[in-house]
Amino acid sequence: MSDADREEDWRPALEMTPDTTFRHRVPIHALTDPVTSNADHFVLAHFGVPRIALADWRLRIDGMVRRPLRLEFDGLKRFRRYEVETFMKCAGFPDNPAINTHNASNAVWAGADLREVLEHVGADPAASFVWAYGPDHGSYADWSADAYIKDVPVERIAAGDVLLAWDMNGEPLPAEHGFPLRLLVPGFYGTNSVKWLCRLHVADRRSPAITTTRLYNDPGPERADGTAVGSVPVWEAPPDAVIVAPADRAVVTGDPVRIWGRTWAARGIDRVGISFDEGASWVDAEVDPRRGYAWQRFELRIARDRIAGATSIIARATDTAGASQPLERARNACHRIAIRLG
């Protein structure tokens, strides 16, 4: 077998159906359940959806490991099973950090802890990244790739709860969510939770793939002149929030007026402010405590006469480290809805 063949032998037989970008989302005002059903959980598959027969699937683990492996599904399921409830947030457009698509969901996933799997194969302590390979391929916008590859810092894996997930909300993964296996990185943007996972490569550097170098990177810290210092990878999800009710462009009745929604961040949310005057002032909502990595619910009841004349509502979340959402032009820009007081 040539080196090229050996490099590619992780790919299973598959059919891309559809073989073009596939999206699914429900309206924000439909996110009423604490746990999002499999049918309602958002999906973004840039190249389409690979259909893989379980008999054709293997997970190859190689690179800086003492015992490279090719695991069949039954072999993988011999590892201890863990459950993790976590929010998942779409990072939005791969090469445009100025738009928040507001696609988010919350589900309960189950599978093996990647930390234990890496211990089993004898991962080298000098390794710093694990490259995760999905076999989906094709073109999206003005870029293309032969595989979807992301890298995860070993230090995040060592912290625990990074899963090789085979169940979603108590059921086998649907094809659109990565059957038979996906990576799940709680607290990271969804782009890092590679679907249809077929290979893990342990390395001492970041992957050179286009999906880690050119795409999914945001401007780094600003200099005094306002220009950015380099770039940072789209890994940890910063504070974010969506207003579930009232719905955008709703006629709002009743007194007090009730506003509620969902909020999340890798580090958890400390507070959510609500503005009725385009961000000039803020009123703190009540925020539920976080369970694990699950999103949190916020709610505000406010006397109608306090918001007379309001035509919009903005929600702004602040995480436990003190970081707050920008009002605009960011992957986590504030959610704003239009209303009319009826």
Please render the helix and strand layout as text.
Elements: H1 3-8, E1 15-16, E2 22-24, E3 43-45, E4 50-51, E5 59-63, E6 69-71, H2 73-76, E7 82-89, E8 104-113, H3 114-121, E9 129-134, E10 138-140, E11 143-145, E12 148-153, H4 154-158, E13 163-168, E14 171-172, E15 182-184, E16 199-203, E17 217-219, E18 231-233, E19 240-245, E20 250-252, E21 257-264, E22 269-275, E23 283-284, E24 286-287, E25 296-302, E26 312-319, E27 335-341
Parallel strand pairs: 5-16, 20-27
Antiparallel strand pairs: 1-4, 2-3, 5-6, 7-8, 8-13, 9-12, 9-16, 10-11, 13-14, 13-15, 17-18, 19-21, 21-25, 22-23, 22-26, 24-25, 26-27
Characterise the protein shown here.
It is a single chain. With 342 residues, the chain is mainly beta. The protein has two domains: 217 residues, Oxidoreductase, molybdopterin-binding domain (Sulfite Oxidase, Chain A, domain 2, Alpha-Beta Complex); 102 residues, Immunoglobulin-like. The chain is 7% helix and 37% strand. It has four helices and 27 strands. A five-stranded mixed β-sheet has the order 6-5-16-9-12. Strands 7, 8, 13, 14 and 15 form a five-stranded antiparallel β-sheet that branches. It has a five-stranded mixed β-sheet with strand order 20-27-26-22-23, with no helix packed on it. A hairpin with a 5-residue loop joins strand 5 and strand 6. The longest helix is centred in the middle third of the chain and has 8 residues. The termini are far apart. The N terminus is likely disordered.
